[in-house]
Amino acid sequence: xxxxxxxxxxxxxxxxxxxxxxxxxxxxxxxxxxxxxxxxxxxxxxxxxxxxxxxxxxxxxxxxxxxxxxxxxxxxxxxxxxxxxxxxxxxxxxxxxxxxxxxxxxxxxxxxxxxxxxxxxxxxxxxxxxxxxxxxxxxxxxxxxxxxxxxxxxxxxxxxxxxxxxxxxxxxxxxxxxxxxxxxxxxxxxxxxxxxxxxxxxxxxxxxxxxxxxxxxxxxxxxxxxxxxxxxxxxxxxxxxxxxxxxxxxxxxxxxxxxxxxxxxxxxxxxxx
Length: 273
What we know:
By secondary structure, the protein is an alpha/beta fold. The longest helix is centred in the N-terminal third of the chain and has 15 residues, at 52-66. The chain starts with 8 loop residues before the first helix and ends with a helix. The protein has 8 helices and 9 strands. The chain has helices at residues 9-16, 18-25, 52-66, 81-92, 174-182, 190-198, 250-254, 260-269, and strands spanning 28-30, 74-79, 99-103, 117-123, 134-136, 141-143, 158-164, 217-219, 240-246. 28% of the residues lie in helices and 16% in strands. Strand 5 and strand 6 form a beta hairpin. The strands form 2 sheets. A 7-stranded mixed beta sheet has the order 1-8-2-3-4-7-9, with helices on both faces. It has a two-stranded antiparallel sheet with strand order 5-6.
């Protein structure tokens, strides 16, 4: 699990409620700690030059030393700048992760030869990282359009968009949606699972528990990782994104169930990425 710009691991841990969900679904979670509370996501944020892809590899190895880890079922999820890094990891470390997830981020990378499995949760009223891209006054940069995201990835990729009528925050149901999307994927059968998932109807879900760690990712329990083969998807269909609008009940918004601590923290501290 990767926090947003100028946020920290504890903020995301509290906002996501990942620990309790992971406990009930029997998997481990590690929370990343970015240098200067930022991640090198390939163009954002904070002029960070650290090798955060290597850092994620280190945290997976560290987690495996203290708890059983299925190396074929490693998932990286992140909020905002952390979600941007998750997308970069999908491109730069396809041998490490079976799937990744972004909440309120945008993919700043392009990997036309590497199939990815990515779920992207985004509020359509987000002005910090706009869903349709454009200028972000907070980040002082132009961002890509989420609607064209699938064109940046290789044929055979599985990309799901979950859109909701909120702003730049972590919705309470996001951890479930991340888990539901990611859990079926494994590096051991990445090709067959991706093909099946690409044709399935999108649904929401949950997931994550707390180990400790210097880089965010969720680890399932028990196996060995194999690299996803690019050649295996040579004849795969073109990448398409399945968009699933989410209507959050008005009573959930009124009660504060939507937005959680991350969104509130971003407003208070101005840590928008």
